[in-house]
Amino acid sequence: MKHLIILSLAVLSLTACGNRNSKKTVDSAVTETTVQTSDPSTVYVYYFHGKQRCKTCIAVGNVSEKAVKDMYADNPNVKFIEVQTDDEANAALVEKYEVTWNALIVAKGSDNIEITKQAFASAVNNPENLTDLIKTEVDKRL
Fold it and tell me: Sorting pLDDT into bands at 50, 70 and 90, what band is 26?
C-alpha cells in the first residue's frame, strides 16, 4: 500500500510539472537565457526547468537560489543560473548537460554533478538538507 501511495504521488508530481495546457508562465525576468557560462574558474549552480512548474519545482529553484546568494554573495566565482529548458536560447546548455526534464547541476568546467533527486526529495520539507548539499558540492569545486 505504501508503494502505491508513493507511486501515485510521483505520477501526480510529474504530470503537474509537465502540464502544457496551464496558463501559468515563468516570469522571464527571473530566467537567464543569455548567460556567459564558459568561465572555467566559476562554479555554476544550474537549475533547469520548463515553463510549467509544480510546488516542488518552484521550491527547488527558490531554495537553490537563496542558498547560493546567501552563502556566496561575496564570491564572484559562484553563480546561480536558472535555465528554462524550452527556450531555444538555452538549447546548447540543455544539450551539454543532457537535460530532459528538470535538473539541478553544480558544475565547474568539466567537473559537474547532478543533484536533482536529492533536491526534489528535500526542497519542500527539509530545505536545509538541500542547502547543505549545495554548499558541499560548491565547496568541493572552489
Answer: very low
Alpha carbon distances (Å) from 86 to 52, 119, 124: 10, 21, 24
Provide the residue ranges of all domains of the chain, joining segments of one domain with +.
2-141
Which residue bears the cell 553563480? 79
- Farthest CA pair distance, the chain: 49
Mapping DSSP to helix (H, G, I), strand (E, B) and coil, where does residue 61 land? Answer: helix
Q: Are 82 and 61 in contact (CB under 8 A)?
A: yes
**Are the beta carbons of 123 and 102 closer than 8 angstroms?**
no
Strands 103-108 and 111-114: antiparallel
Question: Among 3.30.413.10, 3.30.230.10, 3.20.20.140, 3.40.30.10, what is the CATH number of 2-141?
Answer: 3.40.30.10
Distance CA 112, CA 36 (A): 17
Q: Which three cell numbers stand for residue 54?
A: 509544480
Residue 89 DSSP class: G
pTM summary value = 0.76
pLDDT band with cut points at 50, 70 and 90 for residue 17: low
Q: Among 10, 7, 11, 53, which residue's Cα sits nearest to residue 30?
A: 53
